[in-house]
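Please go through the sequence line and C-alpha cell line underneath and see whether the fold suits the sequence. See right below:
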Amino acid sequence: MFLRDFISLCLLFGVLAGAQTPKAIEFSVGNMDLKTDPCVDFYQYACGGWMANNPIPPDQSIWVNFDVLHERNQAVLQNILEKAAASKPERDPDTQEIGDFYHACMDVAAIDEQGLKPLGALLNAIRSAGDKKALLLVSARLGVDGVGSFLGFGVAPDAKDSRMNIAQVGQGGFSLPDRDYYLKDDAKYVDIRKQYVQHLSKMLQLAGAPVSQATAGAQAVLKIETELARAALDRVSLRDPNATYHKMTVRELAGLAPVIDWPEYFSLSGAPGIDSLNVSEPAFLQGLEKTAAGNSLTDLKIYLRWQLLHHEAPLLPTPFQTENFAFFGKVLTGALEQRPRWKRCIDLVDGDLGFALGRKYVEETFGAEGKKRTLEMVHEIEQALHTDIEHLDWMTAATKKEALVKLAAVANKIGYPDQWRDYSSVRIDRDDAVGNDLRATEFEARRQAGLIGKPVDRKEWYMTPPTVNAYYNPQENNINFPAGILQPPFFDNKMDDAVNYGAIGMVVGHELTHGFDDQGRQFDADGNLKDWWTAEDAKEFEKRAQCFIDEYSSFVATGTVHLNGRLTLGENTADNGGMRLAFMALMEALKNKPQPKIDGFTPEQRFFLGFGQVWCNNVRPEAAAMRATVDPHSPGRHRVNGVVSNMPEFQKAFACKANQSMVRHPACRVW
C-alpha cells in the first residue's frame, strides 16, 4: 500500500440516463431557524431550517449541506461516464478507458458469474507461499495492487530535504477504523469486535472456507490485527512530524524486522535500489517481527487472504458486496442502505483513473471566471495573513520574519493540474472489473515507486479535479483547490462578497493557516522539517494552542463521546485562523463601498451566515461516534459555534452580550 505524507445492464443504463442533476445549493435565509438567538446557538440559528428539511438519506451516515454539491458532481460524472461507456470507435483514449472501466464495474451479472476467478493468481500466490519470509514477499506484491497488509510502503518528500522523494515504511495492516477499536474495552468497542469476527467468518465462508475453518480464521485475523494495532502509534502521536521521522539505512531497517527480505520486498514493490529511507514508526516494525514469529504460517495466510477479499469487495460478486456493507456500512456508520451501484462505480473510476475522468469533468464544468476570482481571493487572504503576522503581540520579530518568508513562498494551485496524467499504458477491458482495478492500481503504485530518489514535482496534484475538498501540503508549502469545490455553496458568482468570503474565503484562510498550525509550523518555507521558532515564541504558541485543546475537548459528539481536542487541534486552529483572515479580507474589500443590508442582514452578518451554512449537517450516532475517534475535523455544529464564540467580530455583528453562550471566556486565538 503506497503512502503519500503525512462498486440487466442495458435497462439500468436506460433508467439512469434520465437522472436529473440536483439543483445547486445556495445560501438562503430559508435554511435558518430565526426563532433561535444567534448569540445562544449560532449553528442552530444558521442551520436549523436546513436540518429540519434535509433528513439523512438511507444510503448515507452523515448528510452535510455541501453533500448536495458532491451529488451534483456525481450527476455530472455519471453523464460523462454513461456516454463514455458506449462502445464507439471514435472515442479518444481517455474516454475509452474511463468508459470501459465504468461499463465493467456496472456489469453486475458478469461480475457475479466470474466469482473469485479474477483473484485466482493472487489467492494462489498466498496459498503457495512455503514459509513466512515468502509470504511477506507476497504481501509486497499485493501492496502494488493496493492491498494493505502488515505494513505501509510508499514515497513522500524527505521531511528534512523536501526537494527529494524518499521511500517510506510505516504502520498498517489493520482493517477497523482505528487502533482503539482493537484495544479499548468499552462496551461499544467490545460489541463492534464481536460483530467484526462474525463478518470475517462470513467473508471467509463466501470465499469457500468451511464454517469451522472460517470461524477459527476470523479469530486468527482479529488476533493478528490486534497485535499490529498494539504496536502502532495512536492518531495524536502521528500528528507529530518529528515522531514519525527516522531516516535509516536498509541494514538498520533489517535489524528491526529481519523476517522480511527488504531488498526483494522493495524490488517487488517496483522501487529502484534503496540505500536509505524513512521508517516512520520503528517500534511498529519490531511489533510486526513479533507478530510474524508468534503466529502460524496458516493463520498469516488467512489474514492475507482476508486483506485481499476486503480490498476487492466492492468489485466482487453481490454476496461479498452485501456482506461488506452490512458491517462497514451499517455497523460502523449506521447507514441504512447501500449507495446506488452507479455512485460506487464513479468513485472507483475516480480512484483509479481520476485524472482522465477529471479532465472530462473540467471540460464540462469549470470556467475561467471561477479560477480567476478564487485566485484573487487567495491573494487578498494572503495579504490579510501578512498583516495579521505583522501585528501579533505575542510573537517576536525574529520569528515573525521567518513566518513572513514562509508565507511569501506559499504556492497556489487552483482547479486542475497543468499537465494531465497519461494512463495509456493501463489495459482496461470492458468485461474485467477486478482486473481493471488491479492493473490501474499497479500502474499508480509503480509510477510512485519510480519517484523514489528523484526530485519532488511540486506541480503534481494529490486530489482529482471533481473532489469537493481542498488541502495544504506542508512539505511543498502549497495550497490546493480542486475545481469540484469552487461551486455553490462555497463559491457563487451570483452571491454577494460577504457570503463568498464566509464560505470559500474561510476555506482559503483555513488552508493557509494550516501552514502555521501545530504541525505546519514545524516546516519551513521550503517544506523542510526545521525549527524556525524562538523558544519563547514556541512556548507562547503552545499556550494558545492549549486553549483550543481545552475548548474542543469539552464538546460532546454524541451520547457520552467527547471530541479529542488534541486530535482536532490542527483543524480547529485552521478554522479559527481561517475565519479571522477571511473576515479581514472582506473588510478590506468592502472598504469605502456602500454596505446595504440584504435580506435584512448586514455584510458582517451574512459573512458569518455564509460560513455557518456551509457546515449544516445531520449525522447518525454511529457515524458521530466513529468520527470523533478518527476524524481530525470537528463536527459541523462545533466547528461553527467553536469558531464564532472566539470572535469579537461575530459578537459585535450580532450584538451579543458578555454572558451569552457564543461569547467564550477566555476567547481562544493563535492567528
About this structure: The first helix runs from residue 9 to 16. The longest strand covers residues 161-170.
